[in-house]
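Case study B.
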Amino acid sequence: MSPGEPERPGRQEHTAQPDQAEQAEIAELAVELQRLLLVSSRILRSHTASQAVSASQFSVLAHLDRAGESTPGALADFEHVSPPVMTRVLGRLGRAGLVDRTAHPEDGRQVRVTLTAAGRELVRAGRAERDAWLRSRLDGISAAERESLREATALLRRTLVPPRD
Amino acid sequence: MSPGEPERPGRQEHTAQPDQAEQAEIAELAVELQRLLLVSSRILRSHTASQAVSASQFSVLAHLDRAGESTPGALADFEHVSPPVMTRVLGRLGRAGLVDRTAHPEDGRQVRVTLTAAGRELVRAGRAERDAWLRSRLDGISAAERESLREATALLRRTLVPPRD
DNA sequence: TATTGTTATACTCTATAACTATA
DNA sequence: TATAGTTATAGAGTATAACAATA
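Model:
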């Protein structure tokens, strides 16, 4: 350990690792994580490209099915996209007859977004087929490994995704 | 456990969980994973949007820095994109003076892709700043948590990314 | 004046199909 | 005939800036 470096409890768990090595270790993890996200997103997309609606669109439909209704702004916030992007997504979903956009009962600036019957049907029937490829992959690993993935998923969400509300 | 269901060793680890519950558990993990990949990719992109080259482009440069040289087809395969996509990426990188495309010495059909001096400079200098945001996030969690992430990253790669070569 | 949503514009990412050149 | 790469075409995804309507 280099002289003059004060101990910093809380940053170092149980090893007396110098800071520089720790930073290098973090940098390497960042690179691996970045690449995994880049590549696995492409792979996942290629396996859902033949679906009726894209992953982005389905995510909005699924949220509406859970929440009942929402507004373009709230949906954009939840999905972490800019408002114009959500306008486009809702435009497509609307033209496909999957969502309705009606006047907001209380605030004339806002728009009330709801699922149509067809939209509700699609999201509920589609869930099973939707993640078929991903599920087939998860089916091939052990229950203990899936538990690890579950914990890592939650950890990654806490680490990367800023809290909403 | 439902009657008539035979035991299937290897599918069930240490619990006597019925298949249906296991399938539901897998489906839920698939949904969480899909959403994490969708959202975290967006967040990560928004934090690297101001960089000189996009994540896709940088990934190609970094691979070339490691491998020394490659071909469009091999790069497309490694990056999990279609050949025309790689043509476009290389076109941009070439116009930016970061890669050279020269005649392949042995096979006239192939193209030899190499880094220019500027390309090598960019990838080496850029690595530090590139993942600054991601590293800042990883810096905020414990060493034990990072170790979990490292293992989960490797597991996810094994599970989702088909082996190359 | 601030908020909500949309439109306009521009760029990246992505794929399939058709084409050229070489083996 | 098969392979490597590019071009052509089309669409989704993304953002910022400018605008309209309402609070």
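The longest strand of chain B covers residues 99-103. The remaining cases will be described in the next quarterly update.
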